[in-house]
Amino acid sequence: MANLDLKNATSDSPLLLFAEMDESAIRTAQRLVKTGKLFRIVPGLVSASQPEQWPTQIARERLRVLAGLFPGSVLAFRSAFNGGQPEDGVVHMTGSYRRDVLLPGLKVMVWKGPPPLFDDLAMQGRKIYFPSLPRLLLENLSQSTSSIPKTAGKAAVEQRLLSICDARGEEALIEIRETARIKSKQLLLDKEFRKLDDLIGSILGTRTFKLVTAKGKARTAPVPYDADRLELFEYFAAQLRSTPLHQSPAVALTEQARIHLAFLESYFSNFIEGTEFEIQDARGFVLQGHPIDQRPKDSHDILAVFHQARDMGWSNQTLTPGEAVLTQLRVRHANQMRERPEFSPGEFKEKPNRAGNTEFVAPALVRGTLMQGSSLLPTVPAGMARALFAMFVVAEVHPFSDGNGRLARLVMNAELSVVNACRIIVPTLFREEYLDCLRVLTRDGQAAPFLAAMQRIQQWTAAFQYDNLDRVIAQMTACNAFERSRSQFKLLTPS
To answer: Do both 215 and 287 map to the same domain?
Structure first.
């Protein structure tokens, strides 16, 4: 725009705002509009570009345009709730008087409202402001009577408060409430504050006001549960009901074979969790009665899982739906972790736990989520499908401070044992694929990779004969089961 010689105009933009020019430049621009060298878009905004380019240009410089045309305004209502983004081509703002302005590709609805307060933030250093969180929440609880709804509404505010509580804790909600109490007087939103107060009180458990979202109902249920996890469980259960799964029959048919399979199941299950022994060392203290001289706790971890995989009372103990699952899992965990008092055997976790970027169910929601998740078990076909569902529920809740992965695999295999299907061994070389598929199910809700992986590894487990332990260890070694690098080795199946 330099050839137009508009002093103080933004020379690298095709859009010229009178608010950014001095009087001389404005007069020059007005003359150029009359001569057809510039085009008037709306009062105070001109361009040298053709009209078909204006929507794209305004979208690209939306904040600059809004600040120039509506100085001192505040992004408001659902536009602020969405982070400042237009919705359906509409942006809502508050200003000194009510008006609607149609821009190319954008409708601006300015509502009469309070000016920026001290903690409303200037955007890009311009005279347009983003409201503080308490103001944003209060405004979106106000009643909307326009044909285009201007507020996000109570359900959306409730969902936002629940997300804030999950991310930052209950103290964050208390701080929001106390700040909103003061702001509601400045903004003349006393009625909206009472709604906000009720919502926050219900989430904190100090009010009986009924929440309306699935997550809110879950949080305020008699036994609170994780609504997002339950939605994931329901989705996974639906996939299992509609997907026929291959199921390999049991191959360890003698007592000796069952002992050997239980030993290998325990050895690999512990190896996945970082309890690493040479196979012959583990064989010595598990099967041959060698004294445990070194790493006694790690050794007892393998012994405990072996005991539950071998003993028929444990190996066939499937999950019981509903409240009974809580006692059942606590008793199983207490037995499994009896040599690990530092991990509170049989007691549900008191602190959050996570793996990588995955945060498991919050301690306060463990009981309810286990009860709700396990109640779906009878709806899933018995055998392979129910085994994978039971394992996923325990793994996803992660109800204890340690031992969750081993517990989940024991629960899975119990569902297989009771229908005379082959129990599953997850060898060391398969560890990363197994965990990767679980992560995909957790984060993306994609069940297919996990189902394919677990069917494949059950078929692999069923390809061995377990009567002769020396032979099966040699075969698994030849099949690369004990290797770690997927880039260097491939898991083979015995011929």
So the answer is: no
Contact 389, 380 (CB under 8 A): yes
Q: What is the pLDDT of residues 427-458, one digit of tens each?
A: 999 999 999 999 999 999 999 999 999 999 99
* Closest among 82, 114, 80 to 95, alpha carbons compared: 114
d(CA 285, CA 307): 13
Looking at residue 6, its pLDDT comes to 54
Residues 302 and 422 in one domain: yes
Would the pLDDT of 367 be above 80? yes
CATH value at residue 388: 1.10.3290.10
pLDDT higher than threshold 70 for residue 320: yes
pLDDT at 4 over 70: no
* Phi-psi region at 420: left, alpha or beta (left = phi > 0; alpha = psi -120 to 50): left
**Which residues form the domain of 36?**
1-60
79 located within any domain:
no
Question: What's the structural domain count of the chain?
Answer: 3
**If you average pLDDT over residues 371-395, what whole number do you get?**
97
Residues 307 and 441 in one domain: yes
Give domain status of residue 114, yes or no: no
